[in-house]
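Appendix C reproduces, verbatim, an entry submitted by the partner laboratory led by Prof. M.T., so that reviewers can inspect both the input and the predicted structure.
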Amino acid sequence: MRKSKSMLTIIILLITSVMTIACGKQPEPDWVSDFVVYEGNLYEVTQQKVEQVENKIGEIDKLIKDSAIHSGNISNTFPEGTVLYSIVNVEIQEAIAVEASEGEYLQANFNGQYGK
């Protein structure tokens, strides 16, 4: 009888531990679109290719995988080091270019202030 109680206690502790660990994990967010944040501004990345970029304006500091508010230039898609450019004849407040791969740039359209 004493052995049964000890075994039951151990099983309950194991189940509780597993549940605590499993419930503590945050699921990755299911974002509607790919985005980058540059200098506090949110840009939604499109599949529209940019033919002429102008100047390097920055790069991604961090690839994020959670829905918390982060600082710096971030993206939910592009890794750290991805370069951001201004686009010829387009204001930065309207759109920027993201270097998706070497020599290939995608347009990212301004979509408001990040985190507001």
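The first strand starts at residue 35 and ends at 38. Additional entries are available on request from the coordinating office.
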